Structure formats: C-alpha cells, structure tokens
Amino acid sequence: MRNLGITVLSLLLTTVVIGNAYYQKKQFYPSVVYITKSNPSMAVIYIQAFILVILSGKLMRKIFFGELRAVELEHLMERSWYAVTETCLAFTVFRDDFSPKFVALFTLLLFLKSFHWLADERVDFMERSPVISWLFHVRIISLLFMLGILDITFVLHAYQSTLNKGASVQLVFGFEYAILLTIILNIVIKYAFHVHDFHEMPWENKAVFLLYTELVMGFIKVILYFSFVFIMVRIYTLPLFAFRPMYYTVRAFKKAINDVIMSRRAIRNMNTLYPDATPEELAAADNVCIICREEMQSASKKLPCNHIFHTSCLRSWFQRQQTCPTCRLNILRTPGSTQATPAPPQRARPDPPQQQPPPRPDFQWGVPNPPPPMNNANIDQPMNDRGIQSPGPIPNVGHPPMPGAENLHPFFCSPFPIAMPFNVPPPIPPTETLSDEELARMERQTREGVEARVRCLQNIQALLDASVMMMQHYCAAAAASQRHMYPPGIHEINPTANASAPHAAPNSSSAPDTAASSSSVNPGPSGISSGSKIDVSDEPPQHGQTPVNLSFLNEGPSTSSTDVNGGTSVSPETLDGPSSEQTVDKVATDPCSSEASESPADSEAVRKRRLQKFSKDFNPGD
Amino acid sequence: MAGSALRRLMAEYRQLTLNPPEGILAGPVNEENFFEWEALITGPEGTCFEGGVFPTKLTFPPDYPLSPPKMQFTCEMFHPNIYADGRVCISILHAPGDDPMGYESSAERWSPVQSVEKILLSVVSMLAEPNDESGANVDAAKMWREDRKEFETIAERIVRKTLNIPENL
C-alpha cells in the first residue's frame, strides 16, 4: 500500500515537473535543458528513475520467479545491503568518473546480481520441493539463458572498452560480470544434476559430483578475485570493496577442498575397510537405512559395529563425522590396523565376569600370566585357586622369598602395563540395532565388566605389593647374609643371580624385616583387602614360622582403605620412591633389624643404598 | 524424485501420522514446504506444565538428517532450557562439535539416527525435568532451583495462556 502510494506520488511529481518545464518553455529541447539545469527537478527525475527500476525488477521477478518465499526475500535483502555498501566503497575508488551513467551501471549490476542470487536459491530449492512444475523449468531455463547472455555481453563490452580506452571503471564491471558468469555456470550445472536426479531415481553419486563442481567453481572464483585485486592494486589502489566477497570465496573454496578430502577419505575407508552387507545380513536387520529411512536393496555397507547403512548415506555422514551414526563407534580408530581402542569392544562384549570376577578378564586379555611365577608367593593364592594354574607348587611355600624373588624381575619389568592393549581381542560389537532394553542390558554388562576389571586391577596391585614385599624379604635376607659373606655390592640388581643369596639367608631373619617394612607396602593396595582375607586363612599353615606376616595381612585392609580409587592406575606408585624411602626409615629404626646387624649405622647405609638402587631399577621398567 | 532430505522428512511425516506418539502432533506447515514444521506438544502429566498445549516451530536444514533441525516455541515459555525467544536448548539438537553450554558429551548430540519424534519426546521430558545445569534462561533456572513455588505459578499462567483461559478464572 505504502509502496503504491510512493509510486503514485513520484509519478505525480514527475508529471508536475515535466508539465511545469514544458509550460514555461513551450518547446521540447529548452524544457529538457531547463529540467537538467534545475536541481529539484533532477532530484524528482532521479527518484522516478529509481522507482521505475524497482518496478521493472518486480515485474521481472513476477515473470521469472512468481512469489518469492520468505527465506528468499530475507537472503535477498541481506545480500543487497552488503552489495550496496560495497558499491559505495567502489564509488570512492572511482570518484573521478562519478556520473549518472556510472550510478546507472552500478544499479544495473546490483539488479542482475540479485537475480543471480535468486536463481541460485531457486535451483537449490528444487532438491527440497516435492513437486516441480513445468512452469518452474521454463522459468529457470529462460532466466539462466537471459542472465548468461547479459553477463557475456557485459564482459565482452568491458573487455573491448578496456582494450580501446585503457583501464577504467569498466575493469570492475568486467570482473563482476565474470564472477556472475561463474555463478551462472554453477547454477546450470546444479540444475542439470537435479534434473538428472529427477529422472534417475536414486542417483547416489550426485553429492560427490556437486562437491567437485563446488571445488572447481571455487577455484575459478578464487583465481578471478586474486587477479582482480592484483590488477586493481597495480592500476588504482587497494580495492577494499572486493575484500569481503573475496574472503567468503576463499573460505568457501577451503571448505570445498576440505569436503572433498573428507569425502575421499570416507569413500576410501568404506571401500577398503568395510564389507558390503550381504542380503542375509540385510534380512536379519530390519532392512531400513536409519539415515534416510529407506529400504536398503543394494549398495549398503556394514560397519565394524555391525550397523548397516546405505553407502551413499554413510559417505555423506562420514564427511562430517567419523563415527557410527547409531552407536558412535569411532570408525577411524577401530579397524584392524591398530587396536588403539580397547574400550569400545570391551564395552560391547557380553562379559560374564560376575561368576568369576578376578581371573576371568585376566585370562581373556591374555596378560602374560603373572600368576605362575608368583605362584609360591603367599599373596596370590586367590588367583591360583581360580584355575589358571593349579596350586600344585604349594609344597614349596616353605621358603617364600626365594622362588618369588627369582621370578620377580620378569614380572615387574615384563610388559605388563604395555601388554594389555595389545592383547585385547578384536572388537565384538553389538549385533543389531539396539532397543532400549538391549541398551540397558549392555550398560549393565559394561558396568559389570568395568567392575570386574577394577577388581582384577586391584588384585594385580595386590600382587605387585606382594612382590615388593618379597623384594624386601630378599633385601633383608641379602643384608643378613652379606654381613657374613661379602660387603654390599652389585648383586642385588639381578634377582635371578640373587636367588642364590637368599638361600643362605635364614628365613627367620627375613621375617622380622618383613614385619618392619609392612607399613611401607600397605599404603598401596586396595585390592589386597579382598585377596588378603583369603590369605589370612591360608597363611598360618604355610608360614608357621613367620607369624608376623599374618599381622601384616590383617593390618593391610585398614591402612589401605584410602586408596580405592587408585585401583585402575595400578602399579607404579607402589614401587616408587616413597614406599622404598619409607622402608628405609622403618628398617632403620626397627629394633629387630638393628639387633640383627652388627653396627646399626653400617647396615643402615647399606640398605639405603640398596633401596635407592631398587627404586631406580624398577621405575624405568614401569 | 526429490532430494534425500525431503524424502526422509516425508517418511518421518508418514510415520508420525500413522503412529502418532501420545501428546504430540507434528507436520509440515504446508505440503509445499517440508522444511518448516509445526508441532503441538502437550505438557507432561504430573508436572507444572500439565494440561498446556504448546505450539512449536521446527526448521530443517537442507542437509537434514546430517544436521539437526532448529526448534522454537512460538508461545510464551518460561523454562530453564528454553531461551526467552522460544529456542529450545537440548543436546540432541546440537551437532557434535558445537556446544553452546560446554557441558554436553558428544554421545548425546545429534546424529542421523535421531528423528522428529525423538526430538519432540525429549522436549516433553525436558518440560518434565528441566536441566538447571545449562541455563538457556538463567532466571528460570535460578527460580526452578530456589523458588519452585513461584516457578510453578508462572508455568501455570503460561499453561492457561496457551489454552486461552483468562488469568483470573
């Protein structure tokens, strides 16, 4: 309504101005001169021209687009504002040849630009519209044809003008129309793709083709912009007005490159790593691709987690994210190349850990069985009881320190922490798309699995503590024996060699030492609480002569209760400096050991040195 | 036929009309444009939003199942997870990667497995149990935590408003 009012008003004003001029001058030519000489009259004429341009724009829009959608209008307004400000910036560069003709040319450029944008939106909309009428095709084709012709004409005109008259503002126009020409080309290609897609029902490679079109067009535009800026800088000045579109073009080009790379990677991954789903598998699942909600007849892929999708759907998803859409399994990390992700497969595995908590996971992970070597040590009885190795060697328990010490070294330094990830079994993922109950069950299983693992780790920690303790047994024994045999030296570094030393050491002397060091062992273990309870019952018969051990084991749970969380991170701390340092202090102040040694100061120094060595030797191994 | 986004939206629309979930009504604003939907959500029973019928607007991106739609309540709302302008802030409407509140794990983000139905159901449960950790509407979150009575009064007023019941009845 308001628009109509303005139009009518402007029309009236124009008539009045022209009528007045003609009334005063009575002839055509003098009246024209009169109007051009009078500023107010010219203003009216300009306004009228502007309104005419807008009106003709509306007419063309009606012809080629019909009603604009709200989104289209919104985008059009947004882009127009940018274009107008950029045009104003361009005026500043060419202020010398500022003239009505110049303004008119820029208006025309803006005008054509807006039609390019609209055509682009329309063609994009084809993909989203349920019905495409013949009218639509006719309109789009004729519009594209017309715009293309216009662009080419203007480019040629600018080219001729630059050749004949040297660089002028035509340079800008030529360049702008060249950019518009690439847009037209892009639209035409897209249109062709869409039309092709219409006729050939599922054209799976369309997305890829579009990607490459985008890439090529982006490349052409980037080159155009850079050459334009280069030429402008050489001839005039920095073309500020071209920077915003240039920035966007470069960004779009970068995105196109990125998309193409991601897409290629996804395709390569799919082709090499994932098998095509077989018809049986399709039948077993519910045969609907969860991404597009359509039946999967052909060209579908199975991910390592057993979820099946259309190849094309999967590809477009992988371009954004490298996870399974259903379970979010990271597909880049799971495939057989490396087993860097032990977590998902274990989570998915229906573990039966509840029945046989500690040893079971141990067994499955294929940890280079620590129990056998530890077999004779007093702490690991629960492990053996669960059947990894029968408690055959029990008769040996009489002298715990010796065989234990023998195997201690391999156990500590063996790739125990390292070995775990490598021995993880291949992923056993969920077998079908999951309902809620299944998810809940899986969650429960996962939880149980984690609990079992924590328990297992706690047991391992207990084992480690035990071995530390045995080391100390051995230290004590060595200390005791070396008093008689030779001065302290290198021999303790190599436990296997040392195995002979403890033989000489009387058991009785090692026992008090253990008691002395017990408090240093205990801060670590949390898992010992479960293990040690069994030990307590096992202990007395085996160690009749060392009742002190019993006291240590009883003491264990109470002192260690603070460390429960440490269960998952296991070993190193228990072997580290603090514990051995503590041991040093304890041993030093211990009345039993000082009584056993000849000169307390001497033995203290010896032990200190030795324990430092221990901590040094074992830390790198961890 | 048309693009995959459109086909998927049509499939979802068919599904929603054949088996409408309880308390939810959803469909395109008009059949010409499947990328703008309207949905009516009834307030979950036993909550302060009970009985209300809340109109919402869903806007789907051109690459729909790969990117999440946007959702906005078109009536007045007062809720910790709804912005003052009606936009809904729940994790499944956020594409993995963007995290406006910085608290969501990627496991609860958008993926093509989600659907309009799931979104609407999560919004219903969001109405029932606001998450005051991520305050899209900080005032509402604060009130929900500290002055539940007042919150319920406001909610009730909004419910009445959606049902066109005058305030003082």
Question: How would the blueprint of this fold be written?
Answer:
The complex is a heterodimer of chains A (622) and B (169).
Chain A: H1 2-25, H2 28-37, H3 39-65, H4 70-93, H5 100-126, H6 134-165, H7 170-199, H8 206-235, H9 243-273, H10 279-284, E1 288-289, E2 294-295, E3 300-302, E4 308-310, H11 311-320, H12 343-348, H13 359-365, H14 371-374, H15 381-385, H16 401-413, H17 416-422, H18 436-484, H19 495-498, H20 500-504, H21 507-521, H22 528-542, H23 547-560, H24 572-575, H25 577-589, H26 591-596, H27 600-621
Antiparallel strand pairs in A: 1-2, 3-4
Helix pairs in contact in A: 1-2, 1-3, 4-5, 5-6, 5-7, 6-7, 7-8, 8-9, 9-11, 13-18, 16-18, 18-21, 18-22, 21-23, 21-25, 22-23, 25-27
Chain B: H1 4-18, E1 24-30, E2 33-42, E3 53-59, E4 70-73, H2 116-128, H3 138-146, H4 148-162
Antiparallel strand pairs in B: 1-2, 2-3, 3-4
Task: Describe the fold and architecture.
The complex is a heterodimer of chains A (622) and B (169). With 622 residues, chain A is mainly α. Chain A has helices spanning 2-25, 28-37, 39-65, 70-93, 100-126, 134-165, 170-199, 206-235, 243-273, 279-284, 311-320, 343-348, 359-365, 371-374, 381-385, 401-413, 416-422, 436-484, 495-498, 500-504, 507-521, 528-542, 547-560, 572-575, 577-589, 591-596, 600-621, and strands at residues 288-289, 294-295, 300-302, 308-310. Among the domains of chain A are: 1-65, no CATH class; 66-266; 269-319, Herpes Virus-1 (2-Layer Sandwich). Residues 336-429 and 486-598 of chain A have low confidence and may be disordered. Chain B has helices at residues 4-18, 116-128, 138-146, 148-162, and strands at residues 24-30, 33-42, 53-59, 70-73. With 169 residues, chain B is an alpha+beta fold. Chain B has a four-stranded antiparallel sheet, covered by helices on one side. The radius of gyration of chain B is 16 Å and the shape is globular. In chain B, helix 3 (138-146) packs across helix 4. At the A-B interface, helix 11 of A face helix 1 and strand 2 of B. Chain A: It is a multi-pass membrane protein. Chain A: Residues 332-394, 489-622 are annotated as: Disordered. Chain A: Keywords: Endoplasmic reticulum, Membrane, Metal-binding, Signal, Transferase, Transmembrane, Transmembrane helix, Ubl conjugation pathway, Zinc, Zinc-finger.
